[in-house]
Amino acid sequence: MIKLVSKKFSNKKDAVLLVTKKTDLADVFGIDNKYLDSKKDSDSNDIAFSADGDRCLIVGFVNKTDKLSETDILQEYRVLGCKVCKKANAEKINALELKADGVSREQVIAFLEGVLLENYQFLAYKSKKEKNPLKTIHVDSIKKPRLEELANLAEAVYFARDLVNEPVITLNATELSKRLKKAAPKAGYKIKVLDKKEIEKLKMGGLLGVNKGSVDPPTFNVLEYKPANAKNKKPLVLVGKGVVYDTGGNNLKPGSYMSTMKCDMAGGAGVAGAIYAIAKNNLPLWVVSLIPATDNRIGKNALVADDVITISDGTTVEVKNTDAEGRLILSDALVYAKKYKPMLVIDMATLTGAAEAITGTYGIATVGNAGDDLKNKLKQSGERVYERLLELPMWKEYDEQLKSDIADISNLGGRIGGAITAGIFLRHFTDYPWIHLDIAGPAFLEKAESYKPAGGTGSGVRLIYDFAKSMADK
Ligand code: BES
Ligand code: ZN
Ligand code: ZN
């Protein structure tokens, strides 16, 4: 993690300057802007680079005169941060001083966020670990606590990305639990891991059913952060899908559809990252994260289509497709959440290809029965952190699709609205305000997109953190 240090600008070291008008270069920094114009970076027209003399200068421009919304401008700054980070690393710069002029505090923070998110590397399996050179940024006029908050949030995103990037050969359900335990004291949350025996005692037939094809036992992870100064009397409960690998089970995923399915615990990683950030930044909010974990595999005893299983609340489910496994393990977690009498439950899951087909990698599909106030707050957070939400309808006509002839409900919807019917299935297990986030699109990238690297993106961590902060603020 790059170290952010609150320090006055000395104008002597390698530096990055953020300006909105080129004339500022001359006025504020005493730099001839014609000279820098000739140094425009070849890959980008919004940064300029100069390495003459005894220091390197990177100048970033954001043109705020465009008709951009405030949240779009923040995103411009994140993207600029990504570009500056790339440039600094390419030039093997270890430390930079940052000075901004005409740029708001939140915009500088967004810029730094872009730098930190870009600088992530997953080197666990590289024999030669070529670490990025950029290690320190001195930041003028932003105080230490705000920089620490940002660094903690980025650390939480890194934590989630690492979990997603780890393949199932090293990260089965047990190992996922180990890592969640290991991070607990560092972040400041408490954790209880239910093992297979306890899961059986709770009759979690969804989690146990999906686990039947596995040689590894399932786990059910309960992470909790409950500060004495919590503003909420009822907790915010987060539920994350923890399918450490999804082969599809006996409805085996064909061709290339299986690869990247190590990402199928990204919802679990996301809610773990969220509680990590909330706890580490001491937000005055009571939060619980629930993560049911197993792989979904073929195996001698694996579920087959036509099986009927019983979820922990007694609901019987006809399994019409073993690849619709996420909703089965989530239903047990949603039932478990009832005992908290939560103010709100947000579940997060790489649940359907149908959601991915709607949003692509650019947003999150959502349904829910929570009130407009909570939904709007979460949507606003989505705009602020640029993890945008698209709400889908839960029209009653869709209910038909989940009917089963022999059980209470089927796990498979029809030909249309797959992201919606998955949500309607989940709703069956809720008796509290609830919002479902389908992150199948943005959770994992085959190719980097700006500050989001190829692989796990940490989708949802910044969204939930911003939302929790807005809940704690009021
Ligand atoms: N994990 C997948 C969904 C998924 C797809 C996540 C693409 C990330 C990227 C999920 O378990 C699944 O297989 N869903 C099926 C559901 C269907 C059988 C109703 C799907 O979307 O095809
Ligand atoms: Zn599946
Ligand atoms: Zn899945």
Description:
The protein has 14 helices and 20 strands. With 474 residues, the chain is of the alpha/beta class. Strands 7, 8, 9, 10, 11, 14, 15, 16 and 18 form a nine-stranded mixed beta sheet that branches. The structure holds ligand BES and zinc ion (2 copies). The site of ligand BES has 16 residues, from helix 11.
- Poorly predicted tracts of residues: none
- Ligand list: ligand BES, zinc ion
Q: What is the percent of helical residues? A: 25-40%
N- to C-terminal distance: 31 Å
Number of helices: 14
Number of strands: 20
Largest sheet: number of strands, sense, barrel closure: 9 strands, mixed
Structural class: alpha/beta
Provide the β-strand percentage band. 15-25%
Q: Shape from CA axes? A: elongated
The mean pLDDT is 94
Rg value: 23 Å
Chain-wise SSE layout:
Blueprint: E1 3-6, E2 15-19, H1 23-29, H2 33-37, E3 47-50, E4 57-61, H3 70-90, E5 95-101, H4 105-118, E6 136-139, H5 144-165, H6 173-187, E7 190-194, H7 196-201, H8 205-211, E8 219-225, E9 236-240, E10 242-246, H9 266-280, E11 287-296, E12 308-310, E13 316-318, H10 326-337, E14 344-349, H11 353-359, E15 364-368, H12 372-385, E16 389-391, E17 409-410, H13 418-427, E18 434-438, E19 444-445, E20 455-456, H14 461-473
Parallel strand pairs: 1-6, 2-4, 2-5, 5-6, 9-11, 9-14, 10-11, 13-17, 14-18, 15-16
Antiparallel strand pairs: 3-4, 7-8, 8-11, 12-13, 15-18, 19-20
Bound molecules: ligand BES and zinc ion (2 copies).
